[in-house]
Amino acid sequence: MKLSIKPLMKKNYFLTRHQQFSYYKKFSNLQKRIISLIRSGDFYKLSVEIRNRLVRRLKLLYSRLMRIAGKEKLRWAGAAMALILSTSFAKAQFADPVMVSGFNAQILSSPTFADYDADGDLDIIEGDFYGRIFPVQNINGVFGRVVNPFDSIDAGQYSMPAMADIDNDGDLDLLVGNGEGTFRYYENIGEYFPERTGMDNPVNGIDLGAWSHPVFHDVDMDGDYDIVSGDRYNKIHYIKNNGGIFAHQAAMDNPFNVVSIPQGYNTAPAFADLDMDGDDDLFVGEYYGGIHYYENSGGVYIEQTGEANPFDGMFFGLVPDPSFIDIDDDGDLDFIVGDYFSERTNFYRNDEGEFNLKRGTSSPFEGLLGDLSAAPAFSDMDNDGDLDLLIGEKYGRLKYYEFSDEGFIPLEETFSFTGIADTIPIPVFADIDNDADEDLVVGTKNGLLRYFLKEGPNDFVEKTGTDNPFSEVDLGSNASPAFVDIDDDNDQDLFVGTSVEGYGRIFYYKNEEGVYTEQTGGDNPFNNINSLTDTIGGIINPVFEDIDADGDADLYIGSGEGILSYINNEGVFTDAGTENPFSGLDLGIQLQLYPAFADTDEDGDMDLFIGTMSKYGDGQVYFLENLSEPHINAMEPEISTNAVHIYSHEKTIVVDPGNEFIDRIEIYDLSGALIIVSEVHQNGKIEIELNELSDGLYLVRVFSEGIPSTGKVVIR
Asked: CA geometry: angle at 299 spanning 159 and 241, to 5°?
């Protein structure tokens, strides 16, 4: 199977070299900038925040070069990094989790805004095809599913909710229209919403024939909420509130009787003062995907067409149901719209009167979202220099998000991993074929690993049979792969999390020149962890990252019980205990957690993204920003701690070997280039004049009987 986005360039040597050169150029320029600041003495005049930002950016570029070129080809960059800075981290600190997922819309979504939980912000109440009501809570500006206080409601087919304080007791009650054309009333009594029928229903007996779609609006400006409703037959109805008694108004008393939509039906009204003239205008969604605009002119509603209608010529899906709110707090009204077929609530941002559809993280109603589960993985899939995102969803789909100026934008319309029919695919990226780009490996529900070779930007080709180096891996069920060079031999070894007899296990496959061989017993560094995970029920999802910046990758495990951490001490992994930065993490009741590390904010440290399998039906993603600050020791001359002392005086380097015999002296500049070699073969103090060298920092290596001593010196 081939996976691609349009006709694309095949991978070639030039592309890889071009990408490597781009990162090298950025790294080199930033390195020179830092060096210049240090030489001028201005580096430490900068604020700590700016110094940290420069250092983190340099480290980020270095890590990207490492991913492309590998350790051996980047020894020069590593030497430059060692000369410029040394960093260490205390226990990693991460911000509280922030949900970056919205919610999947229901079939025939009918959304409306209301502060149903009385916390001071507007949430969403959503009806659906089956007559159910769902709350979507506003959590610091991001909208997500929560425990449903309306779970027992069945309003009949096509539920269309609206909320207002109908009984004047200080809380919001629920009114639901339906496909029958009647209205169901549910009183808010604090913890739940019991239905009131007969005379206890203030709109009992009002029947619009079919498709009653209510909204609350003070039409007659008398201080109480009237009901305005669409219907099946291309009309807008006015139901006047007379002191708590609702009366259906005849055509002559209905200011909305002017609404006439040729060939339209299933009308959905909404009110908003888009022209900002102090009164609310009327907007009507109709079956065939249009939104009609009726300007309020002193209580008379006049249809605006053509360019006068900001939604003219736009298609919003079948049976669009609009609702307006200033979601971005910029002083103008944006709007959301549900429709019949979409799996999302579409968000249109008002940009100076022009409404633009926003997707992914540019929409607080969508964000990064999976269907029932979300297993994230990051890689520069399109080779544009930033990290893109792939999310595995429960029913076999892989959703692709491209990183842009406005965040992660889903591009499933043009890029689709078709044929991923496995339930809960778990993607991970690694350079399997050692060609300096990252290929895709997908763990599957049946315990197998599928391999997709990257042949160019957004161009992945599945390899099967003997062309799949993981074809012999078969865990029976629930394979969650992770890659790391555990034995430090410059190739990626494979680890697979799974569940065996209901308990989490990690299997190890050693990479031996492209052949992956299972290691068991004491040859599996996680053999001891496997005995500890008897207390962890279900699947475990491993990921490796050097959060503590000690030069080796530690293990983090996602499960239904949180994020576990195991520290790598020279190849031995032990429980981090109180040093686990994610201990006490509470994401509510989640069936599974899928961790992934990525520096998406490009500040030089690895942040954590956690995908979930949620009991509420949406695969949500949470973001935990890494707040750890590096301790920077930059450009300070060092003296070797052994018997050989290296220092400088103006333009002279002094080597005092004590009783040692010196064979050779090497001098490097900040780029890591060897600039001077002196074969001395003598005892005693040695002075080397460097009048031809420019001022700055240099690395000096002194060899005695083949053993080097290293120091940094400043030439002025």
From this structure: 50
